[in-house]
Amino acid sequence: MSNPRPRPAYTSPPINRDLYDRIAATAGDASSRTLVTEFLIPPRSGKAWHVPAGAILRLSTPEGPQVGDFNLWNMHNPRERLWASRTRQLEKSHVSVGNRLWSSLPFMRPMVTIIADSLADYGVDAVGGRCHDLLGTRCDPYVNKLITNDDFDLHCHSNLTRAVLPYGLTEFDVHDVLNVFQVTGLDEEGKYFMRASPATGDTYIEFFAEQPLLCALSTCPGGDLSNWGWGDDGAMEDVCRPIKVEVFEIPRHARNEVLRDWEESKCPDYKGLHGMKSPQSE
Ligand SMILES: [Zn+2]
């Protein structure tokens, strides 16, 4: 007799599907979606940028497969940032349309909602791999040193660190990532594995900003992960490509209709005293 399927331990609140379908439907319609920011992040580098609340962020791979390591902070308060592990619990280990990325305590509110994903049909592959990974984290020069005894300065942690320095942040602010366009899983022993990115020149993912954001993305030095290894033997460089960033705003005349029923995300209203009585002394 098979065991019953375990019940998910956490459930995220339902989302307003009509709202996010309306936002996603603005794609390709210049009258209801205005391009305000557009740039390419070159291979093996990082860049940070702002996304206003209520705007759409589109990441794409116009030159072919490439994985990206994505960080998010509240634009005005970098103590509020992506909480990858709680997002895994509330949503899934690998995210797609309808999933949200949640922020750290004591904020714990949606940062973005995924509204489009051209890899949504990837599903689960033959070895249990899934796409858009929250299981792992960024590659970094410290673990590179630990494993190979080599110095390498273009890991995602370093790319993200250089990207956020102009915004007054440091490597202490870089945090566990969403790996976009990246297929990963856990093997039978629970060990983390990565597979080649299934992205093509037409691949994209779109996020709707539920609050004002500072975003940063690294184009991983492992490229599309088809030829991946520690250190830098030069072979990986051949499979490294840029990632395109676009930010779209819903123009004023379309907001009442497209963003009907939307408001900036709210924190749970727990009073935050953790059982302490206040005042604690006279
Ligand atoms: Zn990386």
Automatic annotation (TrEMBL):
Annotated Pfam families: DUF1989
Domain DUF1989: from-to ranges: 41-214
Record protein name field: DUF1989 domain-containing protein
Annotated source species: Eremomyces bilateralis CBS 781.70
Phylogenetic classification of the source organism: Eukaryota, Fungi, Dikarya, Ascomycota, Pezizomycotina
